[in-house]
Amino acid sequence: MARFPASSVLYSVLLASLLPRAATQTISTSTPVPPLQWINLSSRLQGSDNAPPPLKDAAIGYDETTRNIIIFGGESENGFPQSTTYLLNLDSLTWSKPSPPDNLNDSPDARSAAITGYDAASSYRSGFVVIGGKSRDGQGLSDVWEFDFNNQFWAQVSVSEGGPSGRWGASGGIDSRTASDSLNNTFYVAGGYDGSQISRLSEVWELHISGVLSPNLPNEVSGSWSQVSVDDLPRKIGQAGTVIGQTIVAVGGCNSTSTDGDSCAVGDSYVISTSDGQVISPGACPAGRRGASLVPNMNSYSNSFSSQVFYILGTFDSSRWDDGGGLDKGEVSVLDTNTGTWARVIPSGDPDSDDATPTPREGAAAITYNRGLVGSHRSQSVDTIVFGGRDASGKYLNEVWLLRAYDGSVSSSGSWSGGSGDLESGADASGAGVTVNYMDKCASALTATSSGTSTSVGSSATHSSSPTQSSAPSAAVAPYPYNTSVNHKVLSAVSVVLLYPAAL
Fold first, then answer.
1. Burial of 339 by CB count in 10 Å (0-12 exposed, 13-18 middle, 19+ buried)?
2. Residue 1 sits in the same domain as residue 125
3. Given pLDDT bands bounded at 50, 70 and 90, which one contains residue 256?
4. pTM reported for the whole predicted model
5. pLDDT: is 19 or 334 the higher one?
6. Domain total for the chain?
7. Are residues 121 and 247 in the same domain?
8. How does pLDDT run across 177-207, given as a tens digit for each residue?
9. SS3 sequence, 365-404?
10. I need a surface site. Which of 174, 219, 266, 401 has the fewest CB within 10 A?
11. Containing structural domain, residue 11
12. Whether 361 and 491 share a structural domain
């Protein structure tokens, strides 16, 4: 049997351990997900005189007691943040504007890209919190406001000193499933941009809200800041973010502001535990997107759903990424935050809409709830409502779409027990005819060659011997804790090699 010098084996193994991890890009085609369907509600809404105009990066929230969706602020078609508040009642599907008490007419200054969330605290507060955002002069704001759903007025939260600087485009918020019997709620803010400098995702803050909000006590809500210690993470802008429990999840976006458009977008993601400061960085799989939306999977049909998030919409540079046509078909990328695995699925669409699924768009506002939001069968599904955004051509939108997750589970076959019959549309769609198609490849990062063609790098890469003119965006890596050091990875390979001569 041929023998090789141990030094040669050591070199080979070390070389393999240091090669880019693009070839380890993986995707799950069997991760259980709910049966999913996109439904266009835009033409079914009433009260157009009170409806919001096309907006990007608006704030969105929901209150179950009043059954109202709130839309606040956002960037209009002229590029300036707005300050108007809109309400959409989900029983009547009618738009209106708030009717506050006569002496409570204050409202937040114009802003977009704020951190938001629902603040339910027993009988003391039932409100919608807005933290910071982008002002009309392009600077970051640091004030905090709360909208009282019951009495339809805004009140400024009295916040103690010592918090983060003004910022917009951060990741965070609150998990709306937080128990409302507590008198205090905690909102999370990670990263953000102040108009001149991007903060790292590892700059994590907690805002603790307490007090009473009512017409006779409009100034009794207070907040205090504390900071969470997290190891260094990249600076991010244009990323999607959400909160599951005490964990912040951030996906995609850009690492700098030096490049206009979507070409700066990368595909990395970070799962940040605020309870212990630990971070994992799942391998990339969806295309690097800018301005996408991220919501928890609140469907409780399967226990495995509780650790999932849905990565939807956004825009990407098709000269730098090949996503297999997924986003144009309404792709929902599903990340399991426990295992770090991705699945890419294509939901069923709306049979009555000109576009069966929403076109790709950045800055759409999305809110999800743990049951259906519209229709007469609310106990049989979980709904996510998506509003507005700006499409790839630069057109601002005021469409309202529903991503419905029916009570059930599908895996690789894409079918489920409730899916027989013809596909339905509208608020009362029951799941008939709904199937889910799993994509079998992660998106590939492209690089231009000297001949003007493109090749892909990743799990399905076609390698070219031609020199490249531009580097590809960040390719996928296998899931591992973000703070794993290079030395640790190298020494693990060395330990294997040191044992090898004993076997020769």
1. middle
2. no
3. confident
4. 0.86
5. 334
6. 2
7. yes
8. 886 667 899 999 999 999 999 999 999 999 9
9. EEEECCCCCCCCCHHHEEEEEEEEEEECCCCEEEEEEEEE
10. 219
11. 1-24+485-504
12. no
